[in-house]
Write a structure and sequence with these properties.
Layout (H helix, E strand, L loop, with lengths): L30 H4 L11 E8 L6 E6 L4 E5 H4 L3 H10 L26 E7 L10 E7 L18 E4 L2 E5 L7 E5 H15 L13 H11 L8 E2 L6 E2 L7 H5 L1 H4 L9 H4 L7 H45 L49 H5 L2 H17 L6
């Protein structure tokens, strides 16, 4: 402890847990690395590749060094090792494009497994002022490409989204030139790249238009070991360097999610429910039949009310134009002397010992006036009316 600079009077609470550094990633800290010794075995030479996790160029490999330590490295850091080809021979494959999912289990709680390889990526942003740059360099760990445990190796897509399924990427070899592509074109280019990596001869498959131009521009912009295959001149072969890019690394994860537009039923916005065609037809028939029946009932009721009102009005009008009839009931008392000078005719009911029973039938309509009444002068009619009124007041029946 004294050699480490810790005095014995210090309390043990000052001690911290010692985490050994990865001397392969941070060399030059051991005595045997400072001085060179003869017949010394290279400490950081690869012994063999034990297993892998992932598929194709996205896989990480479990490497055991001759010093005895075991680490996990991505494909772009072990693609030059002869041990990788021996590992492929054991798996009975010839190229990394044939590599399937491995059964290796890299530790997820040890960050040193994925440290030590930094790449400079370009994040395209829209400038807010003329003085701002359109690109911002960003350091990121390119070895964090484990598909199952680590995040997206390239959080900033290489292509800049323009909207409506269009993407742009500048060409470094031609200043001022920007490539404009659609999502379907990018998928077509990636599929052609995968076919070339799979060992298919370039002359046996059709090549998408401007694939070479895209490959040069993409390889000049891409980092983190992302490269697409290039067909050599005169179709003499295929130049493959780096791993196959994914669609999410080029355009972003959000751009790969197609938005499916569904037509909304106007009845749904009004709070309606979805019904099949049969239920809709039955409901329409029941609704319209019920409304039609109610409409007819209302019309019949209004017609009946109107007819009764018209009949009542007609009766009232006839009653208003009908002349009054004389009353058929008489007074049986003998009339006394009166001041009138006119003689009274005897009552026809005085000779009858028993008065006739009252007539309960409806009063008869008065007879229409005869010709004599029509010829009556106005003066005689007025005098007769006066005599009738006086006789009625005295209980006598005037003489006709």
């Amino acid at each position: 402890m004294r050699q480490c600079g810790i005095h014995d009077v210090f309390h043990s609470s000052y001690l911290r847990i010692h985490l050994p550094n990865d001397n392969r990633l941070f060399p030059g800290r051991l005595d045997n690395q400072v001085a060179e010794f003869k017949e010394e075995e290279q400490e950081w030479a690869v012994d063999r590749i034990l297993s892998h996790k992932g598929t194709r160029s996205d896989a990480v490999f479990e490497v055991r060094w001759k010093s005895g330590d075991v680490t996990w490295l991505p494909y772009d850091q072990v693609d030059h090792l002869a041990m990788l080809q021996e590992y492929f021979d054991v798996l009975d494959i010839e190229h990394v494009s044939e590599l399937t999912e491995g059964n290796g289990l890299p530790p997820t709680d040890n960050p040193q497994v994925f440290l030590g390889h930094l790449g400079l990526g370009l994040d395209y942003i829209t400038p807010t002022s003329p003085s701002n740059s359109s690109t911002t360099p960003q350091l990121q760990c390119s070895s964090q490409r484990q598909p199952s445990t680590m995040s997206n190796p390239n959080p900033a897509p290489l292509f800049r989204t323009l909207g409506n399924g269009r993407f742009a990427m500048p060409d470094r070899y031609r200043p001022g030139v920007t490539l404009l592509l659609t999502l379907d074109q990018i998928k077509l280019y990636l599929q052609h790249d995968a076919d070339l990596r799979g060992g298919i001869e370039p002359t046996t498959i059709p090549s998408p238009i401007s694939y070479d131009e895209l490959a040069v521009a993409l390889n000049s912009n891409a980092e983190n070991g992302i490269q697409v295959a290039l067909v050599l001149e005169d179709n003499t072969g295929v130049h493959i360097k780096g791993r196959l890019p994914t669609l999410a690394e080029l355009v972003g994860l959000d751009a790969t999610r197609r938005v499916v537009t569904t037509q909304r039923d106007p009845r749904e916005e009004a709070g309606g429910k979805w019904l099949d065609s049969r239920c809709t037809e039955l409901m329409d028939e029941a609704l319209w039949d019920n409304l039609d029946r109610l409409h007819k009932q209302r019309k019949w009721r209004e017609k009946g009310v109107a007819e009764r009102q018209a009949k009542r009005q007609h009766q009232e009008d006839e009653e208003a134009f009908r002349p009054f009839a004389p009353s058929r009931t008489t007074n049986h008392a003998v009339a006394g002397p009166s001041n009138t000078t006119h003689s009274r005719a005897p009552s026809p009911f005085l000779n009858n010992p028993v008065p006739p029973p009252p007539d309960s039938s409806a009063p008869k309509q008065p007879a229409p006036p005869n010709d004599e009444d029509a010829e009556m002068m106005d003066g005689e009619a007025t005098e007769a009316a006066k005599e009738a009124a006086c006789a009625k007041a005295k209980g006598h029946i005037p003489k006709k």
